[in-house]
Amino acid sequence: MVMRYKAGPELGVIEVHTTDEGGHSTEFWAKRCIEKMIHVSDDAPEEIKKQVQTYKDNIEKLIELYMQNAIKSDRITINNQLDKAGLKEAADLIRKL
Question: Using CA atoms, how far apart are residues 1 and 53, in angstroms rounded to an integer?
C-alpha cells in the first residue's frame, strides 16, 4: 500500500510504503534508488524517454543484483558468527533464509 501527501515546497511529497509480515524486497529498494537517481523531463522527445527508461531498467537490475549479493554476504557473516558462538541451531536458521 502506498500513501502520498503533498506537504508543500519545504518537504516535497511524503510517501509511505507498507508490507505484510516482512521487509521490502530488493526489487522495491532498487526501484526507489533509481527513482531518486535518474529523471527525464516530461518535455523530452519520445526517443530520449525510451533510451532513459532502458537505461533505468538496466541500472535497476544491476543495483538489485548487488543488493542481493550484499544480503547473502551479510547472512554468511552472521551465520559464521553464530556458529563460532556455539549457536548451531540459530546459524542453521540463518543459512536457510
Answer: 24
